[in-house]
Amino acid sequence: MTPFTQDVVALIRAIPAGRVATYGQIARLAGNPRAARQVVRILHSMSQAERLPWHRVVNAKGEISQGIEQQLALEAKGIVFQSDGKLVLPDYQM
C-alpha cells in the first residue's frame, strides 16, 4: 500500500458511527486535496478486504450511492435524510 492509501484507509476507519466524511475531505486530510476520485477507487477496491465503514463516505453534495443499503446503515446510526434523499452535511460531517 502507498502512504496515501494507508492514510485514506486509516481516515475512513476513524469516521465515528453517526458521522460521515466526503471523498474530498478524506483526500484533503490524507494530504492530496485533488484526489477525491482516488479515494473512491481505494474505497471501492478495499472496503471488503479492509472491513472499512464504506457507508460513512458520501459525496460533496451529501448524496449517497444508489441502492438502499448505505442509507439504511446510516439511518441505523441516527443520520436523518431529507425528502430529496440527501443528508445535511454540516449536521453529520466529522
From TrEMBL:
Cite the InterPro entries for this sequence.
ATL_DNA_repair (IPR052520), MethylDNA_cys_MeTrfase_DNA-bd (IPR014048), MethylDNA_cys_MeTrfase_DNAb (IPR036217), WH-like_DNA-bd_sf (IPR036388)
GO BP: any one term: methylation
Instruction: Tell me what this protein is called.
Output: DNA methyltransferase
Q: Which SUPFAM superfamilies match?
A: Methylated DNA-protein cysteine methyltransferase, C-terminal domain (SSF46767)
Q: Name one Pfam family in it.
A: DNA_binding_1
Which UniProt key words apply to this protein?
Answer: DNA damage, Methyltransferase, Transferase
Ranges in coiled-coil conformation: none
Where in the numbering of this chain does the Methylated-DNA-[protein]-cysteine S-methyltransferase DNA binding domain appear?
3-69
Q: Which Gene Ontology molecular function entries are recorded, alphabetically? A: methyltransferase activity
> Which superkingdom, per the lineage?
Bacteria
